[in-house]
Amino acid sequence: MLKRSALPDDRRDQRDSFQNSPTGPWVAPPRRPASLPPPRPHVSIVRRRSIWSVVFFAILVLSVGVRAYRDISRPEAWAYWKESYFSPSMTSSVIANARLDDGAHSRRTLAIHGTIGAASASWLREQLDEAHLTTGDVVLLSSPGGNLDQALIMGEIIRSRSLATAVGTADSSGRITRSFCASACVLVYAGGATRYGVDGSMLGVHRFTNSRPGRDPVADAQRLTGGVLNYMTKMGVSSAVVEAMSATADVRWLEPAEALKMNLVTDPLGQAEAARR
């Protein structure tokens, strides 16, 4: 007769339930299945996923790089970066009390000089912020012109701050002397809420051309002229100035009386006598 060996109570109860089974003879208790580690992915699958991740990342970097290169490689993009961070095409100086005529008009003035470049609008905004000009103060211009689009923005900035404009240069004492403002500079000048006419200073206009013509040069010219006309009308200047621009490819210097009649000059100052002749 078999003897029971000493077993723990839980194992004994489990074993007795099988030994005393009413359906048959003594049976052994089932073995507990050993815990198995989770299956590992196949090595080739992991490598395949890693390769595709690298390929996708490389394609993404390449596409962004090509787009960035196309943007930066454009001449206007290089010009913008050069002017923004290295060498602005315009210079400025602040005159605390500039005398526009014999002394009746003395205002704080920002004098700017040079060619209007690809980043001149943002440059002008920074110079105005630093100069702390207020309503009625003057932006004094001396420029042969330059970038049309930037000139339009510069004029809008000047008008938004209710500043006046004049053409000339200033000496160390603050006295304004004559100078010239031609081509795109005239658009900046038109932005003045008051546009002073300094005696002897000249305004020059000519036909604007598109530096990046499209497939239809005639349509491009019409759009360009329409944009300039809308801007001049918004600034209170007669459409006659746009007609004068369109009439010649060379610079045409406006007479004082002509500029006053076009409402390009609104306060003739020292030009008053010449304008009446």
Helix content: 40-55%
Overall mean pLDDT: 80
Helix count?
A: 10
**Biggest sheet descriptor:** 4 strands, mixed
Q: For the largest beta sheet, what order do the strands appear in spatially? A: 1-2-3-4
Nearest-angstrom radius of gyration?
40 Å
SSE blueprint and pairings:
Layout: H1 9-19, H2 43-73, H3 75-85, E1 90-99, E2 106-114, H4 120-131, E3 138-142, H5 148-160, E4 164-167, E5 169-170, E6 176-177, E7 180-182, H6 184-190, E8 202-205, H7 217-234, H8 240-246, E9 252-253, H9 256-261, H10 272-276
Parallel strand pairs: 2-3, 3-4, 7-8
Antiparallel strand pairs: 1-2, 5-6, 8-9
Q: Could you characterize what this model shows?
A:
By secondary structure, the chain is an alpha/beta fold. α4 runs parallel beside α5 and α5 (148-160) packs parallel to α6 (184-190). It has a four-stranded mixed beta sheet, covered by helices on one side. The protein contains ten helices and nine strands. It is elongated and about 115 Å long. It has helices spanning 9-19, 43-73, 75-85, 120-131, 148-160, 184-190, 217-234, 240-246, 256-261, 272-276, and strands at residues 90-99, 106-114, 138-142, 164-167, 169-170, 176-177, 180-182, 202-205, 252-253. A hairpin with a 5-residue loop joins β5 (169-170) and β6. Mean pLDDT is 80; it is low at 1-7 and 272-277. 29% of the residues are buried. Helix content is 44%, strand content 15%.
Characteristics:
9 strands, disordered N terminus, 277 residues, elongated, 10 helices, alpha/beta, single chain
Summarize the structure.
Helices cover 44% and strands 15% of the residues. It has helices at 9-19, 43-73, 75-85, 120-131, 148-160, 184-190, 217-234, 240-246, 256-261, 272-276; strands at residues 90-99, 106-114, 138-142, 164-167, 169-170, 176-177, 180-182, 202-205, 252-253.
